[in-house]
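Structure in, sequence out. Go:
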């Protein structure tokens, strides 16, 4: 196993940039996982993406695929490299999966996030979408990078299973139209429906940022808007909670024997 001790080593410089810079992640086509649990998820679901593993204790590593670079580093260097407040002794560098928009969507349930800038929220919604059988997530209008370490950590590995596409809102709407899937926005306007009244079948639910909700651009693209029934003294839920409720409603309608 290779050993590195210097912060100035090119691999260490690369890892620091992967943790901090979305542009570096785009240019390199790679992302960083920062725990043994996430390494397990990569090995379970997308082992072909794994490129490099750094650790402080080689004896605790699982068997790695042939061709994966394995590096041991001292704990002081791991603390410097890890984006986590409390490093867990393992960092993994992976290739980003293919992110091109498909010509047609073959699934039934999707979510679209509009300007959700908190990476923790993006990762949590990804985890929820994966758990509730969603077929993918669309990010428009400056959402947080789903490959940022905090987002990956919040997704608990769901980013490896649930497809994520970053695109323009109009591109997403064109794809929904070609695929015969209506877009429901979580907002209030004259055509707003109770979320429990959404038509059965395929659907995309759009969730806006906590500060401003859905943008005018996305609202104009929605086929209808929906509201989540709640106490009158409450104005709204946060983005992750709203996504969970709406995705649950879509999943519930498709449940056997409902």
């Amino acid at each position: 196993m290779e050993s590195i001790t210097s912060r100035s080593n090119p691999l260490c410089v690369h890892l620091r940039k992967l943790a901090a810079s979305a542009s570096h992640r785009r240019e390199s086509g790679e992302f960083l996982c920062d725990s043994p649990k996430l390494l397990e998820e990569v090995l379970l679901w997308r082992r072909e993406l794994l490129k490099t593993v750094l650790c402080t204790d080689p004896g605790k590593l699982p068997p790695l695929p042939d061709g994966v670079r394995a590096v041991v580093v001292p704990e002081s260097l791991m603390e410097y490299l890890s984006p986590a407040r409390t490093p867990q002794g393992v960092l993994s560098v992976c290739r980003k999966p293919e992110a091109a928009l498909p010509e047609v969507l073959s699934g039934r349930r999707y979510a679209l996030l509009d300007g959700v800038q908190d990476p923790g929220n993006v990762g949590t919604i990804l985890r929820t979408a994966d758990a509730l059988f969603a077929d993918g997530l669309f990010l428009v209008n400056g959402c947080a990078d789903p490959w940022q370490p905090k987002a990956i950590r919040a997704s608990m590995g769901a980013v490896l299973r649930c497809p994520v596409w970053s695109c323009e809102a109009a591109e997403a709407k064109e794809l929904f139209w070609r695929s015969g899937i209506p877009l429901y926005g979580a907002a209030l306007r004259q055509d707003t429906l109770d979320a429990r009244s959404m038509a059965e079948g395929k659907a995309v639910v759009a969730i806006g940022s906590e500060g401003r909700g859905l943008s005018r651009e996305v609202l104009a693209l929605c086929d209808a808007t929906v509201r989540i029934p709640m106490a009158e003294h409450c104005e709204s839920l946060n983005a992750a909670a709203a996504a969970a409720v709406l995705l649950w409603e879509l999943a519930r309608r498709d449940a056997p024997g409902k």
